[in-house]
Amino acid sequence: MLLRNSSTSRQVQPGIVSAIIKTGLLAGTLDISAALIQFYLKTGKNVLIVLKFIASAVFGKSAFEGGYDMAAMGLLFHYIIAFGWTILFFLLYPRMPLLGKKPVITGLLYGIFVWLVMNLLVVPATNISRAPFRLVNSITGALILMLAIGLPVSLLANQFYSKKSKSAIAGDDNSILR
């Protein structure tokens, strides 16, 4: 049975919110874990610096003087961003059939896209202090986003939409909620 959402006429897949939450939490956790581990292995310093660095996008250099509250703000901002990329992909997926053709390649390319947008548009528009360009740091950052954001988001979106198409083909009347 198709149901119509009275506020819009767009189709809403049942279970999409749950799929986005699970995917966003996974991708955000993989990404922040990789960033914290990489930072610690490289510097040996307290990983809260990474979270305060993220918070400095909004709070500037004063974020580094903060305590756990500022680290928590950085973690919150991190997950908001991870969910933003997850939501974007889930919204684009049914509108761009090419995304489902090769989900691994798509995910890796999406990770590169995320890195480019974050580093060329988002970060420069924040209060984060600029560091000199270092190729190895850029490659590391891009690889982390390819494997921690792009790949899981693409694979899980593909899994979600594949289940929905199989359900629709099988004649499940609840496959699309309008």
Key attributes of the depicted protein:
178 residues; mainly alpha; 67% helix
Describe the overall structure:
By secondary structure, this protein is an all-alpha fold. It has one domain (16-169). It has helices spanning 16-43, 48-59, 68-92, 103-122, 135-169. Helix 1 (16-43) packs across helix 3 (68-92) and helix 2 (48-59) packs across helix 3 (68-92). It starts with 15 loop residues before the first helix and ends in a 9-residue tail after the last helix. Mean pLDDT is 89; it is low at 1-9 and 173-178.
Quick overview:
Helix content is 67%, strand content 0%. It has helices spanning 16-43, 48-59, 68-92, 103-122, 135-169. The model is unreliable at 1-9 and 173-178 (pLDDT under 50).
Give me the secondary-structure topology.
Elements (H helix, E strand, L loop, with lengths): L15 H28 L4 H12 L8 H25 L10 H20 L12 H35 L9
How many domains make up the 3D coordinates?
1
Compute the gyration radius: what is it?
19 Å
Largest sheet: none
Classify the helix fraction into a percent range: 55-70%
- Regions with pLDDT < 50 over 5+ consecutive residues? 1-9, 173-178
Query: What structural class do helix, strand and pairing data support?
Result: mainly alpha
Summed over residues and divided by their number, the pLDDT gives a mean of 89
Oligomer: single chain
Tell me what portion of residues adopts beta-strand conformation. Answer: under 5%
* SSE order: HHHHH
Number of helical elements:
5
